[in-house]
Design goal:
Layout lengths: L2 H18 L10 H16 L10 H16 L6 E3 L1 E4 H17 L4 H16 L5 H17 L3 H11 L16 H18 L6 H12 L7 E2 L13 E2 L4 H11 L2 H13 L8 H6 L15 E6 L4 E6 L2 E6 L19 E5 L2 E10 L12 E3 L4 E13 L15 E3 L4 E3 L7 E15 L2 E10 L3 E8 L4 E3 L2 E2 L5 E3 L5 E5 L2 E6 L13 H4 L10 E8 L2 E9 L1
Parallel strand pairs: 19-22
Antiparallel strand pairs: 1-2, 3-4, 5-6, 6-7, 7-8, 8-9, 9-16, 10-11, 11-14, 12-13, 14-15, 15-23, 16-22, 17-20, 18-19, 20-21, 21-23
Helix pairs in contact: 1-2, 2-3, 2-4, 3-5, 4-5, 4-6, 5-6, 5-7, 6-7, 6-8, 8-9, 10-11
């Protein structure tokens, strides 16, 4: 038994309980938040290591939360959580409710909540890929408490669609958030409760992939995500119980090392996992010895990315955006194609924006691995000028089909018009060298201007660049610049002249008054096409 681990979770949950006792009656909480609060209190009440073990002060709070779960449930068994009468959101609620019900030894009011929700989950639909596994896991929990063949039948229907995982371990949404919070824990629950050990292979592969997405400070690289986390940082603590479970099951020292690192850092809502240990005490066993990889070059073909790490220095090359001409939830649209760090000096993004008919940032149409240290990104933008319609397609009333030409809509019958094109071809070749990376930009086709944007994480000292304004914007006009945090330093250059070029996010953003300005210290290098430009990055 890993007593330090148990103490860590217990103290973390006790801290959560202490905060909840003064703030549990929050009417703005969603049903999911109410259920999670109940789970935290129930874990503290049941755990014999907790300062709140069998503490009667928790019963009033638990009673209020359980009454809220009863009151908020629709007669059809579903909850509203943003989405109305939502089976997937209800599944999130019910997973926690089932755990609370079991921990407390069976509470009649929660039993009725579970019984009402079961048939609705077995009949309802979903919105996203991960919802299938969340609903299935909730049904598995309901079935374990109140068996019914319809629950198993629905689980089998969803699983028969196949798990949306690639051979390199990436789920279709390419999201750390949904892998860690939904898909992996749901598949582990299904493997255990439905006797489906085959599902463990998907979790195992995803955790193996995650080993190569980890940053030294515990962040997970999310540049390729198709969900909200493509534009934010993500911490590995959410994966704790998954890494621990597979480390113990497989005797995998790599997974054990990640779990120990999470525990040592102590970041995140780790108290939430106390309920998991109460449900599965075997997960508190001592972990095997081992270490996680810290020196590698790893290619993810499914998302056209490469991860590079040499101890405290890491980099990501990305060419896998979904180039569909629209910006929408469920698509990879992050224009960052390179990022790097050395220790605490972090270059969060390198982006490129040509001024070319409002087409926006450079987004590569793939990634070519040219050797052990060389990668090529590429794109060709072709923008049409529409010519007169052929005589036989002209209409005297001037009424034509409303259509999309790749940038905007017009009643011009675009599909039948001949066109002439303006073209811009862009290649970015990235070569890993002894102390960093060389990025070579090659532009051909029509003449225009462009800007390269380097965005550093705040907290460091920038030297060598000219200040453009008071909003964190700078330009490297000549020589070499540097960004340092303590003794960690990223040098970049050479500068490319004083030409001022604004970053253009594209008409899909500007029409809505939106932008794509990343948070941080932004340095620009500019130029005019056609040309070749070199950007050297040195990490020390």
């Amino acid at each position: 038994m890993d007593l330090e681990f148990l103490t860590l979770l217990t103290r973390a949950n006790d801290a959560q309980v202490s905060a909840l006792l003064t703030d549990y009656r929050d009417q703005s909480d969603s049903a999911r938040a109410v259920a999670r609060k109940a789970r935290r209190l129930a874990a503290g009440f049941v755990s014999d290591r907790s300062a709140y073990h069998r503490d009667g002060a928790l019963l009033e709070s638990l009673g209020w939360l359980m009454a809220e779960l009863v009151a908020r449930q629709h007669p059809d068994g579903l909850y509203d959580v943003g989405n109305l009468h939502s089976p997937p959101d209800t599944a999130f609620v019910i997973q926690d409710v089932c755990m609370v019900y079991a921990l407390l030894g069976g509470t009649p009011s929660l039993g009725e909540v579970i019984r009402r929700a079961g048939p609705a989950l077995a009949a309802g639909g979903v919105h996203t890929p991960n919802h299938r596994w969340e609903v299935s896991a909730a049904l598995a929990r309901v079935n374990a408490l109140f068996p019914d063949p319809q629950y198993v039948a629905r689980i089998d229907e969803w699983l028969a669609e196949g798990i949306d995982a690639t051979p390199d371990g990436i789920y279709s949404e390419r999201s750390s958030t949904y892998a860690a919070e939904v898909t992996n824990p749901s598949l582990l629950t299904l493997a255990r409760l439905q006797d489906r050990p085959d599902l463990l292979a998907y979790v195992r592969r995803n955790l193996e992939a995650t080993l190569y997405l980890l940053e030294p400070n515990g962040e997970v690289d999310t540049i390729a995500s198709r969900r909200q986390d493509q534009k934010s940082m993500r911490d590995v603590w959410w994966y704790l119980m998954q890494f621990r479970e597979l480390a113990l099951l497989d005797g995998d020292g790599r997974f054990a090392a990640v779990a120990r690192a999470i525990e040592t850092r102590g970041v995140g809502e780790l108290g939430d996992f106390l309920a998991d240990i109460l449900e599965q005490p075997a997960l508190a066993a001592a972990l095997p010895a081992g270490s996680a990889p810290t020196d590698f070059v790893h290619h993810f073909p499914s998302q056209a990315s490469v991860r590079i790490r040499h101890d405290s220095r890491t980099a990501t090359v990305f060419g896998g955006t979904d180039n569909l001409g629209v910006i929408a939830s469920g698509l990879s649209t992050n224009p960052t194609f390179f990022k790097a760090r050395t220790g605490n000096a972090i270059l969060d993004s390198v982006r490129l924006s040509p001024q070319f008919f409002g087409t926006g940032h450079f987004r590569s149409k793939g990634l070519q691995v040219l050797g052990s240290n060389t990668y090529r990104l590429f794109d060709e933008s072709r923008v049409p000028y529409h010519l007169p319609l052929p005589p036989q397609l002209r209409r005297t009333n001037g009424q034509y089909e409303l259509g999309w030409d790749g940038r905007f809509y017009s009643a011009m019958d675009f599909s039948d018009r001949p066109r002439e094109y303006r073209t811009l071809r862009t290649e970015v070749t990235i070569v890993e060298v002894a102390r960093g990376f060389d990025l070579s930009f090659e532009f051909s086709g029509d003449e225009t201007v462009y800007a390269i944007e380097l965005c550093f994480r705040p907290g460091g000292v920038l030297t060598g660049a000219d200040t453009l304004d008071a909003s964190g914007n700078y330009q490297l006009t000549s020589g070499t610049g540097s960004y340092a945090v303590g003794t960690d330093r990223i040098e970049f250059g050479p500068g490319s002249g004083p030409l001022r070029v604004a970053m253009d996010p594209g008409e899909v953003y500007t029409y809505l008054g939106a932008d794509l300005v990343p948070d941080g210290v932004r340095v620009y290098l500019t130029g005019r096409t056609p040309r070749r430009q070199m950007l050297q990055l040195r990490l020390s």
